[in-house]
Amino acid sequence: MLTAILLGFLFALFLVFTGKFFRGKMAILSALIPAGLFAYFASFIPKISSGEIISRTYQWVPAFGVDLSFKLDGLSLLFSLMITGIGFLVFAYTASYLRGHKYLDRFYGYLSLFMAAMLGLVLSDNLISMFVFWELTSISSFFLIGFNNTNPASRKSALTALGITGFGGFSLLAGALLLGSISGTYSISEMLSMKEAIAGSEYYILAVVFIFVAAFTKSAQFPFHFWLPGAMKAPTPVSTYLHSATMVKAGIYLLMRFTPVLGDQEFWNTTLIIVGGVTMVYSAVHALFRTDLKGVLAYSTISALGILVFLIGLGSKDAFLAASVFIIVHALYKATLFLVTGIIDHQTGTRDVTKLAGLRKIMMPVAIAGILAAISSAGIPPTVGFLGKELTYEASLHAEAFTVVIVVAIVLTKILLLWAGFVAGIKPFTGKLSEEYTNVKAPDFLMWGPAIILAVLGLIFGIFPMIIESALVKPVVSALGADASEYHLALWHGFNTVLLLSAITIAVGVLLYFLVKPSVKLENKIGKLEFISPKSILEKGTHYFNVFSAFWTNVFQNGYLRNYVTTIVLFLVVLVSYIMFGSSRVVIDHTQLSQVTAYELVVALILIAGVFYTVFTKSRLAAVAAMGVVGLAICLIFVFYSAPDLAMTQFSIDTLTVILFVLVLYRLPKYLTLSDYKMRIRDGVLSAALGTVICLLALQVLAEPTNSEVGDFYAKNAYIMAKGKNVVNVILVDFRGIDTFMEISVLAIAAIGVFGLLKLRLKSTDRSQ
Amino acid sequence: MEVLLAIIIGILYAAGIYMMLRRSLVKLIIGIILLGNGANLLIFLLGRITEGAPPIIPGESKVFLEAYADPVPQALILTAIVISFGLQSFAIILVKRAHKVVKTDDLDEMNATDEDS
């Protein structure tokens, strides 16, 4: 199974080296990979439908409980078949759609990368590896949306999609870690047995919110839906594959996967019903106002995803049954409609539905596919769409609360979706052919073949529902934790409310189709409301965030050293004094302190005078000299307090510094006082504050007991181990010899730098005039 | 004496930061040197000061017989003094060099990376 998942990655890698070969006529060969995988997964159908679950575990990072563990049950089987099956058709279709494209091999690389990531996502049983595959689908989607990378709109859409789904991925990771820490495992199968413990945890709501955000961003639920219409900038095979049939259903998959773990709770169900309900109505209405075929399809896809979320939210057995049938229905008809749209776009060069009519005369097979898909999307018998719609109504009628509102919403959505399906699948082919398009060529088989296969499958599954019933639908329902073995899919259920609702839907929908034609006028109307849409709100938000960041950066990273120093010092003073004065008082224990002798006092006074003179003198030379005095006074303090080595070092270094300064400084410009009075007061106050804080800090530390263990060790062993009597020297050259060696290297580097700066001659261009 | 030293350290820190806040490059370097001296003294003080007992093992004995000053802070400070000399000498030469190229020691005229500004 690992091979099956990795095959896509390997093929993508393989394409890097053999791209040229696949760019030409051999492109069609790459469709063999999804075809083979489809056959491989199809061979599991008998086992899965008999209730078996196949799992494989490969260790990855056992220390963190992260394994590559895969589980094939009804749910993952359905998705795997969709991914590889539709993948096969899309790969074949692409060979013709992008024939001769400069980067065809790259496109296949991205597609197979995506396919492998998606397979990994639906088969993963470990939450962390699932997250990795989830992110891979977002990334490959980014590359595919931005495939026409010379088009700025494409790049922008790709970035928006990546931003939204990436945010969702982040949320998935957070949810995974949270669930992992609640249950102590990252394995989803093991979480199943801990349902009560998880639901009882105080973090349950938070974990569910994280999972929801991940699912809603990926599956384009309101208010994160807007990246999906933008993603339609991608070439049509991508829209078909990623943005209608597979990737956008990853969020649905996530919700279904977690239904047995997190579901059946009020928060879970209510949120899903509300979000799904709002999404399905909102975007179905939006579809009315589009003239771009892909725009219509994008909004109807969002609406369909909303229906799925809504059904998962209902949480009854009927609803799960409806959801699993509707996933199949939607994948079949929506992929067909996208393929059909792609053909129209490819042959005529336009997707503007107001201009298209009568194309059946040119591309009959495409018209058949389109019309079949349209009636399946409308839920007209005997297509499988009818089954899906009946089940959906059935589930809605049995909703526990607000049944009327729910039924009205779902019927309204279905009516609008019928309209959208008809506009995309029927309108371009009926009516009178415009003269502009009489010379349009018919597409070749590679293009219309996949479309018609999918459309006919929709019809076959409708007439013979038993094909999918035990093979696909029931295993999914049982993976969701419900038992549907009693139920049988059938077209005819007798005269009942559901049938009445179906009749109303179809009648009103068809009427609507004849009354409301897509037009630019309608599109402009909705355009006026654009400013309150989530998309523009987010765009404004990111704009202001950028403005704010720029402002913030300019405040702190302003290029003035003194401002940096001010910020750091101010922060230090505030923080340290808060801690210091918040906790304890400074206590000075006089008995512990040594006496001040007269010569010490004199040295201290010289030092202080030297410091003040350094700061306030107007002469640079005087400042340097006073600084030298300060250094020598410190040298004397070292002498008084038993540090002869320090005194010697300080003495020589201080002397050298002063000499160096004097040598260099006589060339410099006049010593100016550049700041004004006010600024000096401000800096003075800040410096004094820091000085006070440091002084108090030192006193407070002195009040604490000290530990001289390390010093004692060195003192005890200086002669015994290192044969030296000056302990400081022994530490430097023996115990910490390597450190000293490094220090010498640093000094050598500094010396080289100094030498270089002194000797380097200026080029005439470097010298400013 | 400890209190007096703490006050001296405070003054050195204050003076160092005050000088670092000035616009002149030379003052900046002086500020860094003062701050470094303050830091050295701070470490010295916090290692507890001892009068007249350097950490040198006397005469013929192999270990200390009487109280002695803690050698660890001294070793640290010795390293710090030497390293800060490396920094100071490099900075001083850099100031000279910068002055030669851009004809100023005003930091405000040096806050762009572009040569022509």
Strand and helix layout:
The complex is a heterodimer of chains A (769) and B (117).
Chain A lengths: L1 H22 L8 H11 L2 H5 L4 E8 L4 E7 L1 H24 L6 H20 L3 H19 L6 H32 L4 H5 L2 H6 L3 H15 L8 H5 L4 H10 L4 H13 L3 H22 L5 H22 L2 H32 L15 H15 L5 H14 L5 H23 L19 H19 L2 H14 L17 H19 L4 H8 L6 H23 L4 H23 L14 H19 L3 H21 L3 H22 L11 H27 L5 H14 L4 H9 L1 H23 L10
Antiparallel strand pairs in A: 1-2
Helix pairs in contact in A: 1-2, 1-5, 2-4, 4-5, 4-12, 4-16, 4-20, 4-21, 5-6, 6-7, 7-10, 10-13, 12-16, 13-15, 14-15, 14-19, 15-16, 15-19, 16-17, 16-18, 16-20, 16-21, 17-19, 17-20, 18-19, 18-20, 18-22, 19-22, 25-29, 26-27, 27-28, 30-31, 31-32
Chain B lengths: L1 H19 L4 H22 L24 H32 L15
Helix pairs in contact in B: 1-2, 2-3
What is the structure about, briefly put?
The complex is a heterodimer of chains A (769) and B (117). With 769 residues, chain A is an all-alpha fold. In chain A, 72% of the residues lie in helices and 2% in strands.
Protein described:
- The complex is a heterodimer of chains A (769) and B (117).
- With 769 residues, chain A is mainly α.
- Among the domains of chain A are: 597-674; 724-769.
- Chain A has 32 helices and 2 strands.
- Chain A has helices at residues 2-23, 32-42, 45-49, 74-97, 104-123, 127-145, 152-183, 188-192, 195-200, 204-218, 227-231, 236-245, 250-262, 266-287, 293-314, 317-348, 364-378, 384-397, 403-425, 445-463, 466-479, 497-515, 520-527, 534-556, 561-583, 598-616, 620-640, 644-665, 677-703, 709-722, 727-735, 737-759, and strands at 54-61, 66-72.
- In chain A, a hairpin with a 4-residue loop joins strand 1 and strand 2 (66-72).
- In chain A, helix 10 (204-218) packs antiparallel against helix 13 (250-262), helix 16 packs across helix 21 and helix 19 packs across helix 22 (497-515).
- Chain B has one domain (2-51, 69-110): Helix Hairpins.
- In chain B, helix 1 (2-20) runs antiparallel to helix 2 (25-46) and helix 2 runs antiparallel to helix 3 (71-102).
- The mean pLDDT of chain B is 84.
